[in-house]
Amino acid sequence: MTYDLVIGDRAYSSWSLRGWLFFDAFGIPVNLHRARLYTNELPNLLKSFHPARTAPTMRTPEGAVVPETIAIAEELASRHPEAGLWPADPKARAIARALAAEMHAGFTALRSYCPMNLRVSYTDCAPPPEVLADLARLDVIWTWARSEIGGATPWLCGAYSVADAMFAPVATRIATYNLPVTPAAMDYVMAHLAHPSFRRWRAMGMVDGPDQEFYRRDYLRRDWPGPKPLPARAVEGTQAENSLCPYSGKPVTHALELDGRRFGFCNAFCRDKTVADPEAWPAFMTLYQA
Q1: 20 in a domain, yes or no?
Q2: PROSITE patterns from the entry (predicted)?
Q3: What is the DSSP annotation of 195-258?
Q4: Residue 254 lies in domain
């Protein structure tokens, strides 16, 4: 048996991103159940996860439903101490928990004015004073954590932890809306954009459904500031160097082209998430570099 996790649209559901990172970034297997936001899909799906009302919601192998992100993190940490969801050092762990709790409850102006959208990046969004105040507070607590813990990693409390996963959607908002932050804060944002688990989530978010009109803004656009994907493209037919999908091991039905070479996958989603960011997928890169 394993865990089940309900998520919303990957491009837009910031809380779903956090919940998923608790699994993927720490190597804990999970079965995903995705529902599109602003439709009946999510409430209908959650009928089998009573009494949950939101994504993400976790169900444990024993059947316990855990609908709150902080609760999901704590439950996984208690069940999988070897995974390192929280820092082992007591001081670092205390600071990480304080940071995660403030993120869970705060920064409402930033979250409201700049909803998460992983599919675009803008040159400017004219943030109002309330958003600028939230950004200033982020700089204060991020600087505080690093000064208290030290360390040579780009993360807040030593190794990547729940605290960093909690701030991942804020990092994407800074990237999407080109929000004004200090150089140190931008370095932290760029570390998130380059994190392997985040790159996989965003690659899937680019292709797992049509755009949600609620998140559309008319600001001038720019390129996504994270790592630039390799120039892959979807192609017709099944001709490919490999006969089996690098992810599922099933026969090839769809293909992409990269550097004049063709690679096959078992369905359109496997292909398209790889087109979105080939380097996000170790199994594909092993095939590509062979």
Answers
A1: yes
A2: GST_NTER (PS50404)
A3: -HHHHHHHHHHTTSSPPPGGG---SPB---SSPPPP--EEESSS--S-SB-TTT-PBP-EEEEE
A4: 233-289
Residues 95 and 78 reside in one and the same domain = no
Query: Same domain for 78 and 110?
Result: no
Q: Are residues 172 and 197 in the same domain?
A: yes
Same domain? 51 vs 95: no
Phi/psi region, residue 179 (left: phi>0; alpha: psi -120 to 50; beta: rest), is beta
3-state secondary structure of 262: strand
**Average pLDDT rounded to a whole number, residues 93-102:** 98
Q: How confident is the model at residue 151 (pLDDT cuts 50, 70, 90)?
A: confident
Residue 227 lies in a domain: no
The torsion angles phi and psi of 138, rounded to 5 degrees, stand at: -55, -45
DSSP string of 127-196?
A: --HHHHHHHHHHHHHHHHHHHHH--SSSBTTBS--HHHHHHHHHHHHHHHHT----HHHHHHHHHHHH-H
Q: Is the pTM of this model over 0.85?
A: yes
Q: How far apart are CA 4 and CA 75, in angstroms?
A: 13
Query: Rounded to the nearest 5°, which phi and psi values hold at 16?
Result: -65, -40
Domain C-terminal end among 83, 104, 132 = 83
